[in-house]
Amino acid sequence: MRKVAAGLRRLRGSVVAQNAAALYAVQGAAMLLPMVTLPYLARTLHPDAWGLVVFGQSYAAWIILLLNYGFAFSATRAVAQGRDDAEGVARTVAGVQGAKLLLGLAAAAATVFVGFAVPVFRAHPGHLLFAFLFALGTGFSPLWYFQGVERMRGAAALDVAARVVATAAVFLWVRGPGDGWLVLALQAAAALASCTVATLWMYRRTRFLPPRLHGAAGTLRAGLPLFVFCSAASVYTTANSFLLGLMAAPATVSFYGAGDKLVRAAVTLIYPISQAMYPRINSQVARDRSRADQIVQATLLPIAVFGGVISLVLGLGAPLFVRVLFGAGYVESVGVLRVEAAIPLLVALGTVLGIHWALPLGMDREYNRLVLAAGAAHLLMCVLLVPRLGARGMAWSSVLAECIVEGGLLWLFLRRTVRVAPAPLPSAEPR
After folding, report:
1. Are 130 and 185 in contact (CB under 8 A)?
2. Gap between the Cα atoms of 416 and 363, Å rounded
3. Sign of the CA dihedral 319, 321, 322, 324?
4. Under a CB-based contact definition with an 8 Å cutoff, are residues 155 and 201 in contact?
5. pLDDT recorded at residue 429
């Protein structure tokens, strides 16, 4: 018992554990708080109006992807591996901020074009405007910096507080199908407020260097491989509702969005472990490659089992979850949820093999090839399956794309990794 108690004390004092807890709070706010509003919005807005909100959120996800540009991996890795060099960190921050400004201009131009080209947004410009503002607030957030320096608690508290306020406001002010735009407006206000305060806080910790075009361009070049990876991955993850909206009616988007949002909310239970371990594994790779291999092997089975349990619960409980959360009008979402229930298990495997193993070891090219292949296959399967199966066709396409990536990563891991004795997770270190 004394050993167990000592282990728990070490875990509480571990920077990794503290950051994992903070990241759980952020991910919970990002996905679980919207789950609180889903039953209310599904019934208040009805399928057509709620489908427009889901479509707008999915477009925002594309813009967020562009603004993030893979910096959650590339910039976090740079800060984590060089955080003892204050001047180097300041240059990294300046490069990322400059790159985001350039990307923001590109995103604004793309949004103007989409407003004219996409009939749904042409008919509902308010949804597009607030979706874009929400994307700006989220995409410019400097959470990548706080993750890299392993100081997530304050930034996480700020992010969660803003989302809680937005969630409460939805219940207060959204009253009928005509208020769909207000959902996006409230989310935009929360994201912009949180981003502004977090950015000021970041510059209290690191010296401000004005962004320069040369530095921004260099940052974009350095982050391109991971941007390609994130872009291709988004084709079969966050962008599915947007793709479906281009091929089907808003009601079909809402049926798919209901099941998919449940799955993505469940997947957030896995992400904080990954994000907390990512900077630690990168710093270990710089000092001791064999130790990093040991950490990966020690975490593979527990995280895979965790993901498998989540998948099992979603698959078995699909009818109950849909009936309780969305009501009888969303029975088509049961099939979507049953198909996509496999995703948490697949994501758990990909978390360890891709994020914890391939990226820290610089295997960006191999990882990108797998993700690009999956994205291309997903688009082809969408064209073949959605006209025949509707929302379930999109779900099947998404699962098959995940299988391509995780199967390829597993093959690479078994082929390349060197067997070493498993080791416990890193213990507490002085901050």
Report:
1. yes
2. 11
3. positive
4. yes
5. 45
**How many Å separate Cα 284 from the centre of its chain?**
24
The C-alpha atoms of residue 38 and residue 51 are separated, in whole angstroms, by 12
d(CA 367, CA 360): 11
> Distance between CA 269 and CA 314 in Å, rounded?
13
Enumerate the H helices of 250-331 as residue ranges. Answer: 250-267, 271-287, 289-326
Lowest-confidence region among 11-20, 208-217, 271-280, 402-411: 11-20
- Helix, strand, or coil (residue 351): helix
3-class DSSP state for residue 331? coil
Model confidence pLDDT, tens digit, residues 100-129: 999 999 999 999 999 999 898 999 999 999
Number of CB atoms found within 10 A of residue 339's CB: 24
Report how far residue 344's alpha carbon sits from residue 337's, in angstroms, rounded to the nearest whole number. 12
Q: State the average pLDDT over residues 158-177.
A: 89
Paired tokens of 81: 């591996």
Sequence-separated (6 or more) residues with CB below 8 Å from residue 431: 15, 150
Query: Residue 21: pLDDT above 80?
Result: no
> 250 or 135: whose pLDDT is higher?
135
pLDDT computed for residue 185 by the predictor? 95
Is the separation of the CB atoms in 195 and 138 below 8 Å?
yes
Helical (H) or strand (E) element with 167 = helix 153-173
Q: One-letter amino acid identity for 341?
A: A
Check residue 366 and give its pLDDT: 81
C-alpha radius of gyration, the chain, whole number: 21
CA angle 345, 164, 67 (to 5 degrees): 65
* Confidence at 154, pLDDT banded by 50, 70, 90: confident
CA distance 315 to 82: 43
Query: How is residue 142 written in tokens?
Result: 């400097």
